[in-house]
Specification:
Length: 480
Amino acid sequence: MTVADSDFPIDNGASCLPIPPEEEKRIVSELIKKSELNLKEGNLYYVISNRWFSRWQMYVGHCPGMLSTDQQSSDGLHADTVRPGPIDNSDIISNGSNCDGNDLDIHRTLQEETDYVLVPQEVWERLLEWYKGGPELPRKLISQGVGQKQYSIEVYPLSLKVTDARDNSVSIVKLSKKATMSELYELVCKVKGVEQNKACIWDYFNLKKHTLLTASDHQTLEDANMTMDHDILLEVSVDTDRSSHSGVHSIGNELALVPLEPPRSSVSIAGGPTLSNGHSTGSGFNLYQGSSVSSSLTTMDDNYDIYRGERGGLAGLQNLGNTCFMNSALQCLVHTPPLVEFFLQDYNDEINRDNPLGMSGELALAFGDLLRKLWSSGRTAIAPRAFKGKLARFAPQFSGYNQHDSQELLAFLLDGLHEDLNRVKQKPYIEMKDSDNRPDEEVAYECWKNHMARNDSLIVDECQVSACIYHMFLFQSHNR
């Protein structure tokens, strides 16, 4: 689609007088270097179609596909000397993009450096000054993770589906996953023309009412486990008293008003002992013998459908985007008998909240909570939203909803569980000795003893192998 044929607003006004391509390249190179020295959350970057950008790269005489302009084209003498026309992003924009109050959508299957490139705001402004065109596609730099933060550009902000309880109409709004609930209320009310003091917004995952989202809450959409195309429900009260739900236009499940915490009642895990408040009172049970039981252990955090199952552990995991890599690894772990037996017991005393190499026990608690839900009889499928949110917090490389490496996820999870459950509270310093031609048995015993002095957990108990020196062996084929 040419610029002239585009339905999107593109400035086709005459560009400024051209400067030599070498000068354009020099200016852009300096601006890129400057931006790399000033990384901070909130910086703006712009999406540019790689189809247009590669033409510009050829024009200024450097390698297409390389954002850095330091590298000369190996075929510089034959570089395309034709100056590209106005910036044209029409090929990466979704046709019929109809978001309310936000920027245009781009296709969700695009790949960076193949379909588009990201340039700092200063570079975009210069290119726009030289070439005009568009449309503008700004994206923000966000930080992820705890401790050592990682920066990434949020190319795909969250797209949320807003169902209006008054007429069941559906609108779409886009917000950063780092946006707060207050910002969500502000945007939704602006789009729907509603006063904030009369609005109630619910988590409407799977078109069922769950948690009431509070405008004064500083919780982010990411913290609330909002995912791409997440459903939320807008209810508008006929008066200004938001505490009264009698005057609210409402649809859906009114049972959403029950507390988020599970009731302190006894439940029966299929094939296992009675649990009190989610903790086991015994240990010697058969994981694969069960009967039909009903469970009162319900939460609004991970949605599930009820059915009369014959035993626990038969529940599936819903994909949150392309998260089958995570679900497949989780299903392997939650059906490993030693892990099931451990996490269905009262394991709170095993949590190491002070381990600097761990996650303050949060990862183990999130995994244990998910395992308990999967092993509560009478469930078909669970959306592991809470676990996914916790995982992304400690491992930003797994944030978002794209496909990742399942073994990499499994390695991180096992290591994280090990550190969160490490019984060694203070790790001693140990100097490794040379073998000095000692017998292999002696060296192996010494290495394992040194390792156990710093690492003692359920994971170490179950993952063992004989070797003359210590190796990482979580995934070796000879590991038992």
